[in-house]
Specification:
Order of helices and strands: HHHEEEEEEEEEEHHEEHH
Shape: elongated
Number of strands: 12
Largest sheet: 5 strands, mixed
């Protein structure tokens, strides 16, 4: 039945855990809509025949429906709508809640290509390699305008916004190659901004990843882009340390836990930060990136608003490398322990 409905509705193959859930809801919505349309149409024709004018000057019959019929007419569609909402909301929570252990991959969209960066691993252009049967989280940003990642076979789509990170996760179930598209108009060559997701068996992906980390082979999935300041084979943690030193971040931030002009970076990732306006927020990837691009949006309590903005000065790969470097600065304490910055 699944294959029949998928072919009937011209849907692509199902290659992720999301695909079956999305398609099942799709089948129910389409099926219910078709049945309701047939029912309304049939009833309309029946009423047209039953209550047609038979004599000249005939008056319209006064019809008074019983209360139970009115309740039925209102209650059935309302029940179906609430059932759709319950299923849809459950799926929404599932789609937007990545598991705790995911394979994180940084994604940068730019006119008109996709760049992928693996923490402590290789970078690639146009080709995203992922293991089958393991959850993967994409941490995405744009270098120029709004883009949107869409993988039809996975039934996943998310906008990619300049100056901030959005995230998308999935778990591929079928080994193979699947197209990746940009579905947000981004310029003259928008239709050419396509990529490919290569789903590999877990053991084969692990061997490929280790070989890439070791520099074998030296050829990546794409060629270097002229003008990029982050080299393709760079380790993101070491690259982040280099970038932070180059930008002078250590003049205000320490990496040993001691406060300075700005909060220490040691154990910063995953910790709850308290701000001057009394609000709190977990220091995740989105917050760390926002603090670089718009530092005055949330000023940490106990510190002055003196950090300059790096919007336009940091490229996407550099911001990703800085975030990975901050994430690597961990002490013996468990995440979340100790005073907030």
């Amino acid at each position: 039945m699944n294959d029949f409905m998928r072919n009937l509705l011209f849907l692509p193959e199902q290659a992720s855990t999301f695909a079956h859930r999305v398609d099942r809801l799709h089948y129910v919505v389409i099926g219910t809509t078709v049945l309701a349309a047939l029912g309304v149409g049939t009833a309309g024709l029946a009423f047209f025949w039953r209550y047609r004018i038979r004599t000249h000057g005939q008056l319209t019959q006064d019809v008074k429906a019983p209360l139970w019929l009115e309740a039925l007419i209102v209650g059935v569609p309302l029940t179906v709508f609430l059932a759709w909402f319950a299923v849809g909301f459950s799926d929404f929570v599932f789609f937007t809640s990545p598991p705790k252990k995911t394979t994180d991959i940084y994604v940068e969209g730019k006119q008109w290509m996709w760049k992928f960066a693996y923490p402590e691993g290789p970078n690639a252009i146009g080709t995203l390699r992922v293991p089958a049967g393991r959850p993967v989280r994409l941490l995405m940003t744009s270098r120029d305008v709004i883009h949107s990642v869409f993988i039809p076979a996975f039934r996943t789509k998310m906008d990619v916004v300049p100056g901030r990170y959005t995230q998308l996760w999935f778990e591929a179930t079928e080994v193979g190659r699947y197209p990746l598209f940009c579905t947000e108009y981004c310029g003259m060559s928008h239709s050419m901004m396509a990529g490919e997701v290569v789903v590999m068996p877990p053991a084969e992906f692990d061997r490929w990843f280790e070989a890439q980390k070791a520099g074998r082979p030296a050829v990546q999935d794409g060629t270097p882009v002229v003008g990029e300041r982050v080299s393709l084979p760079a380790d993101l943690v070491h690259e982040g340390q280099r970038v932070s030193a180059q930008l002078g971040c250590f003049k205000c931030h320490t990496v040993n836990g001691e406060p300075h002009l700005g909060p220490t970076w040691l154990d910063l990732y995953g910790r709850v930060s308290k701000f001057q306006d009394g609000t709190e927020r977990v220091a995740d990837e989105a917050y760390l990136t926002e603090s670089m691009m718009d530092p005055s949006a949330h000023v940490v309590a106990g510190f002055a608003n003196m950090m300059p903005t790096y919007r336009g000065r940091l490229q996407g790969p550099e911001a990703a490398a800085l975030v990975e470097y901050i994430k690597s600065l961990r002490s013996a304490r468990a995440p979340g322990e100790g005073a907030a910055p």
